TrEMBL record:
UniProt keyword terms in alphabetical order: Repeat, Transferase
Pfam family, one: Rhodanese
Protein name: Unannotated protein
Taxonomic classification: unclassified sequences, metagenomes, ecological metagenomes
Originating species: freshwater metagenome
A Gene Ontology molecular function term of the record: thiosulfate-cyanide sulfurtransferase activity
UniProt key word Plastid: no
Coiled coil: none
Length: 287
């Protein structure tokens, strides 16, 4: 597979040499702003908009599955096909938040062995470097053939597996901002706090001030401090709903580490079950 992070210059080279690349705009906002509207205001030339809620999440499932459970393999394949993404397509995904939401599509595709990468710095870097943008509804993609495949069980964990791993001293990384991790701010989650034993690894910590991924040595130092670089740690990643946790997966792979297993239901699913204890504070009190 290609590397999980690609820079704008490399993307331009791929496009000019005729590689089968589909650029996807995966903007989505927790505060309710309209990602489609943002896309139509400005997007990379030829980019296809991907609706995270519609295309990258399942529907009609219990609250304990979280706000953004994985779609069925058939539904995901259908969404990709409609977006013009086929079995041999190279996908480069971007947003305007450093990969926060684009990473969800990239991780899903890479779990299936498909070539996909986050555009380093996203739309903001593309524009800052003087590259062209387009406005309006964008082109209608040519439908492609995307073969459905089961989500790999070795990359996913349940709530019980996450709890057992944390209880045994394993590394469980929570990608939410510190104030949501500690419980100071509840925002959209059913209850404040975090999964007992989890370690705070905010998604934004893997980005530099310019919105690009940190150099690999800095990423390694970051994950070493979290205890996530030793093989026996077998890290598990989660967040609020299985979206921002993908930033830790991409950053770890970019740094040469084994990607973490994903607890996709994340804290929205965990805290929806009253039988699950939660911790508050940086170390936490079980409640």
């Amino acid at each position: 597979m290609i590397a999980p992070v690609v820079d704008a210059a490399s993307l331009e080279t791929w496009l000019h040499t005729g590689r089968p690349v589909t650029i996807t705009d995966v903007r989505w906002y927790l505060d309710g702003r309209d990602g489609r509207e943002a896309y139509e205001t400005a997007h990379l030339p030829g980019a296809v908009w991907i609706d995270l809620d519609r295309d990258l999440a399942g529907h009609g499932l219990p609250a304990t599955e979280g706000r953004h459970p994985l779609p069925t393999p058939a539904d995901f394949a259908a969404a990709m096909a409609v977006a013009g993404i086929g079995d041999d397509t190279i996908v480069v995904a971007y947003d305007d938040t450093g990969g926060l939401t684009a990473g969800r599509l990239v991780v899903m595709l890479r779990m299936l062995g498909r070539d996909a990468a986050v555009l380093n710095g996203g739309l903001n870097t593309w524009v800052a470097e003087g590259r062209a943008i387009e406005t309006g509804p964008g082109r209608a993609p040519t439908p492609a053939t995307f073969t459905a495949a089961a989500w790999p069980s070795e990359r996913l964990v349940s709530a019980d597996e996450t709890a057992a791993h944390a209880a045994a001293g394993g590394v469980v990384l929570d990608a939410r901002a510190a104030e949501r991790f500690t419980g100071e701010v509840t925002q959209i989650d059913p209850r404040p706090g975090h999964i007992p034993g989890a370690r705070n690894a905010p998604w934004a910590a893997v980005l530099g001030a310019d919105g690009r991924m940190l150099p690999t040595q800095e990423l390694l130092a970051h994950y070493t401090q979290l205890g996530a670089t030793v093989p026996e740690a077998a890290p598990i990643a989660y967040c609020g709903s299985g979206v921002s946790a993908c930033m830790n997966a991409i950053a770890m792979e970019h740094a040469g580490l084994t990607p973490p297993r994903m607890y996709v239901a994340s804290f929205s699913g965990w805290s929806a079950d009253p039988a699950h204890a939660v911790e508050t504070g940086p170390g936490g009190q079980v409640a």
